[in-house]
Design a protein that fits this description.
Shape: globular
Signal peptide: 1-17
Protein name: Amine oxidase domain-containing protein
Structural class: alpha/beta
Helix content: 25-40%
InterPro entries: Amino_oxidase, FAD/NAD-bd_sf, Flavin_monoamine_oxidase
Strand order of the largest sheet: 6-5-15-18-19-14-20
Number of strands: 22
CATH superfamily of the domain at 18-60 and 228-293 and 427-481: FAD/NAD(P)-binding domain
Distance between the termini: 23 Å
Number of helices: 14
Domain Amine oxidase: 29-479
GO molecular function: polyamine oxidase activity
CATH topology of the domain at 18-60 and 228-293 and 427-481: FAD/NAD(P)-binding domain
Length: 483
């Protein structure tokens, strides 16, 4: 009799009113939400994914000796990091040996390594100073001349240090994922996880965290039935949340109704489509939050060479432009703005761990959308032109035979790489991220429209662990409604 009573109680909790849930997006937050729901007995789940694959901004592709990550690449920190907690006992993550790139100047070619290291150390100290301005750009420019005074007694070195502010700008916006350092708030709510901020996946790819969430790894026999819940190539064009059940319509003509819809699309998609995507339209404070949070993109380019022409000690190349050379170069392919080539937006070339014949270039700033649209051969030609122009001297430099890249900004399913706080972002306890995360709907205590994704994380935005936290958060919100 007791067993029967317990069974009936469980059935009353979930079985008699098994809520239906649609999750829009099969990235880290969407997969996290689905797995949490399944583990808590909510099984009526449909995941609508616009791409032909799962993973979202995690995009690990098999190549050569391991997996290459075209999106998220590093596990950032160890303490208070759900990604690290999930994998720490599986002997997967590795501490990354610090790169020591050589710095080249467009006019003076290779610079003294001691000066290069001192310059980078000065950058890092300047970034870490107290935040007193509206934007990072304002503060760093205002302080720059003062911090490079250490080289004032050597006019030639001092001139290079002055020109390095352009490299510094590219350095900053590449890290922040912005198009301009004036777009990035000087102070922010981001909480750094203690420990190694650049743990690598030892050739396994960031996709490993998805396999762990779905319990496909380390034992596939224990996997959750996520694959049965995912519908690929389902681009959503309307979410009607006006009734008790929300209705989701896709561009292929299909439609789905559910008690709850969890929206996990990127901030970039919300910026571009919120006005047409939601019926009725979102309330003003949520629209304001979407507008005031920031997202742009970096363009990661991976080049495979048939023969490796660099040695094991090669730590990469930083490119520092003479103030006039950006307008003097003869490379005619690809976009140009105000007489300056897109090549000036590439500042670094790095070796790729666990794929010994691959170099990785980062293109940042306002040129990113146009470079994403360039043919592969233009990008290859540009990178190789720069190696020659900057005088990178190595024997037997070969031409790459493969280029691997992904267009995060021009792809309408992403519209950016990761979010950041702008000078206009509301911060603190009522931050724009908090407002973005608040559920909507007139279904009493059971809202039918919920929001997840890294941009809705007040303190761990821009990260995979932040995205997973929000997926768990919204799943727990639904679970609590039916307890």
């Amino acid at each position: 009799m007791l067993i029967k009573t317990v069974f009936l109680l469980f059935f009353a909790s979930f079985g008699a009113c098994d809520p239906s849930v649609i999750i829009i997006g099969a990235g880290a937050s969407g997969i996290a939400a689905a797995t949490r729901l399944l583990k808590n007995g909510i099984t009526n789940i449909t995941i609508l994914e616009a791409e032909g694959r799962i993973g979202g901004r995690i995009y690990s592709v098999r190549f050569g000796e391991g997996y290459l990550d075209l999106g998220a690449e590093w596990c950032h920190g160890e303490k208070d990091n759900i990604v690290y907690e999930m994998v720490k006992d599986l002997n997967i993550l590795r501490h990354t040996q610090e790169f020591d790139p050589e710095m080249y100047h467009s006019k003076f070619k290779r610079l003294d390594q001691n000066f290069s290291n001192a310059l980078l150390h000065t950058f890092d100290k300047l970034i870490a100073e107290p935040k007193k301005s509206a934007s990072m750009g304002e503060r760093l420019i205002s302080r720059y001349e003062e911090v490079i005074d250490q080289w004032k007694n050597d006019p030639s070195v001092y001139a290079i240090a002055q020109e390095a502010i352009k490299f510094f700008e590219v350095y900053v916006i590449g890290y922040e994922g912005a198009f301009s350092w004036f777009d990035v708030s000087d102070d922010d709510d981001y909480m750094v996880s203690e420990g190694d901020l650049n743990l690598n996946w030892n050739g396994h790819g960031f996709k490993t965290i998805l396999d762990l969430l779905m319990q496909k790894y380390p034992a596939a026999s224990k996997s959750l039935p996520i694959d049965d819940k995912v519908l690929l190539n389902k681009e959503v064009h309307e979410i009607n949340w006006s009734s008790k059940q929300a209705v989701v319509k896709c561009t292929d003509g299909s439609s789905y109704a559910a008690d709850h819809v969890v929206v996990t699309v990127s901030l970039g998609v919300l910026k571009h489509q919120h006005d047409s995507l939601f019926q009725p339209k979102l309330p003003g404070d949520k629209i304001q939050a979407i507008k005031q949070l920031g997202i742009a993109a970096v363009h990661k380019v991976l080049l495979h060479f048939p023969q490796r022409w660099w040695n094991d000690s090669y730590g990469g190349t930083y490119l520092l432009w003479d103030k006039n050379d950006g307008k003097r170069i003869s490379f005619s392919e690809g976009p140009v703005k105000d007489g300056v080539s897109w090549l000036t937006s590439m500042s670094v070339l790095l070796p790729v761990l666990h794929n010994s014949n691959i170099l990785e270039a980062w293109i940042v700033g306002h040129f990113v959308p146009e470079v994403e649209r360039c043919p592969d051969e233009v990008v290859i030609n540009g990178v190789m032109y720069l190696l020659d122009y900057f005088g990178v001297v190595m024997e037997n430099i070969t031409w790459p035979d493969t280029i691997i890249r992904n267009n995060w900004y021009t792809n309408p399913h992403f519209r950016g790489t990761y979010s950041f706080q702008t000078p206009h972002t509301r911060r603190g306890i009522h931050s724009d991220a908090v407002i973005l995360s608040e559920p909507l709907g007139n279904n009493g205590e059971k809202p039918n429209l919920l929001f997840a994704g890294e941009a809705s994380n007040p303190t761990h935005y821009s990260t995979v662990h932040g995205a997973i936290e929000t997926g768990f958060r919204e799943a727990d919100r639904i679970i609590t409604m039916y307890k």
